[in-house]
Design goal:
Elements: E1 2-8, E2 13-19, E3 29-39, H1 41-47, E4 61-62, E5 66-74, E6 86-89, E7 92-93, H2 101-104, E8 117-119, E9 123-124, E10 131-135, E11 139-142, H3 153-170, E12 190-194, H4 198-209, E13 213-218, H5 225-232, E14 236-239, H6 245-252, E15 257-260, H7 265-272, E16 280-283, H8 297-306, E17 310-313, H9 319-335, H10 339-343, E18 344-349, H11 353-358, E19 365-369
Parallel strand pairs: 8-9, 12-13, 12-15, 13-14, 15-16, 16-17, 18-19
Antiparallel strand pairs: 1-2, 1-4, 3-5, 3-10, 3-19, 5-6, 6-11, 7-8
InterPro entries: ADH-like_N (IPR013154), Glu_dehyd_C (IPR031640), GroES-like_sf (IPR011032), NAD(P)-bd_dom_sf (IPR036291)
Pfam family, one: Glu_dehyd_C
Domain Glucose dehydrogenase C-terminal: 148-369
Length: 371
């Protein structure tokens, strides 16, 4: 048996459980010792029973999708990994519909049917367990020097996928064709990150690296631990408490890219009205149905159409963006060696996982240490 943190939807309970130890049953599988699992808003929503689906044969769902693991055993067909390797697993798994072109092309993050499964979220147990078995094709190798920060890979993939899509969209502009292959494709453009949580701060690091003049717009007044990180990477931190959206726009002059990472739709919509011509607005989080808001639809559509703007939504990531995130973590670590570790506020033992899952402690990123 292995220890795991699980949510029981019917019983409305989260607790440490004894779970049958998984074994390799296919030659393409890998047995993993889970080292760390990041806690995010998705986990807290699942614990609040807003969503989350256990496997069909289980009354509980093992939580956790932001994981770092060590390989302990490999199937006979696995040649790319060996015991002792560090890996980060993907979250989403393809649907079974033979007509789903996305899943058949190993791009299940764009699944057409919506019947995909996700580790720790929908239909599959997650990684908040001492031992897990997974398919080798869903694992990505991690350099040993990233051991202390590699658990940040999955949240970074959100920004990685967003940036790839934004650059592909901007290639519609003839003078920017091929921008996705340039070393600094954001050079000369301004990006605003809404929110200074882990996804927002990691996104800001990515945009700075890509050459964007980057601003992070968050609630708390500076100085604080988040503003210190923003300034350390060469971006600019602005507080919503002291700078209105109108003042933000006046200061920047124009906004080419907005990356929403704050789960606060009213503010996001307010910023949307100030997006520059040919600009792109990226949504990464949903809205709270308990806090509805109103939008002037006619005005919003007029802005979008007359200014050639694009709005996209993105969640989860595919194989290429996982590998890109690992590569960028190495770049971040070399460029700002003190910054990445500062994102991790605290590590909790498994016995205290419930504490951080049921409430949102202060700080930035909280991690459950499994091994």
């Amino acid at each position: 048996m292995v220890k795991a943190i699980a949510v029981f939807p019917e019983a409305h309970e989260i607790r440490l459980v004894e779970h049958p130890e998984p074994q390799i049953t296919q030659p393409s599988q890998v047995k993993l010792k889970i080292l760390e699992v990041g806690v995010c808003g998705t986990d807290r929503h699942i614990c609040a029973l807003a969503f989350g689906t256990p496997p069909v044969d289980s009354e509980y769902l093992i939580l956790g999708h932001e994981a770092l693991a060590e390989v302990v055993e490999v199937g006979e067909a696995v040649t790319q990994f060996r015991p002792g390797d560090l890996v980060v697993p993907e979250v989403r798994r393809p649907c079974n519909d033979p007509d789903c072109r996305a899943c058949r092309a190993a791009q299940q993050d764009f699944c057409y049917t919506g019947s995909y499964t996700e580790r720790g979220i929908q239909g599959l147990h997650g990684y908040m367990a001492t031992t897990v078995v997974d398919e080798a094709r869903y694992l990505h190798p991690v350099p040993a020097e990233l051991r202390q920060v590699a658990v940040l890979t999955e949240p970074l993939t959100i920004a990685e996928k967003a940036l790839v899509q934004a650059l592909q969209i901007q290639d519609r502009l003839p003078w920017r064709t091929g921008s996705a292959t340039n070393a600094e494709p954001g050079r000369g453009l301004k990006a605003v990150v809404l929110g200074a949580g882990p996804i927002g701060l990691l996104g800001a690091m990515l945009f700075v690296t890509a050459g964007f003049e980057t601003y992070v717009y968050s609630r708390a007044q500076a100085p604080n631990e988040k503003s210190a990180i923003v300034e350390a990477i060469g971006a600019t931190y602005l507080s919503a408490e002291t700078t209105s959206v109108e003042q933000l726009t006046e200061r920047l002059g124009h906004i080419d890219l907005v990356y929403e990472a704050l789960d606060a739709a009213p503010l996001a919509i307010e910023v949307l009205h100030n997006l520059h011509r040919n600009g792109i607005f990226i949504f990464t989080s949903g809205t709270d149905p308990n806090h509805p808001f109103h939008i002037d639809t006619a005005n919003a559509i007029e802005h979008i159409t007359s200014k050639n703007q694009v709005i996209i939504g993105t969640v989860n990531a595919g194989p290429a963006t996982f590998q890109s995130a690992i590569n960028h973590l190495s770049i971040f670590q070399q460029r700002w060696p003190q910054v990445l570790p500062a994102l991790i506020t605290r590590r909790y033992p498994m016995e205290q996982a419930k504490e951080v899952l049921l409430k949102k402690p202060g700080g930035i990123k909280h991690i459950v240490s499994i091994a």
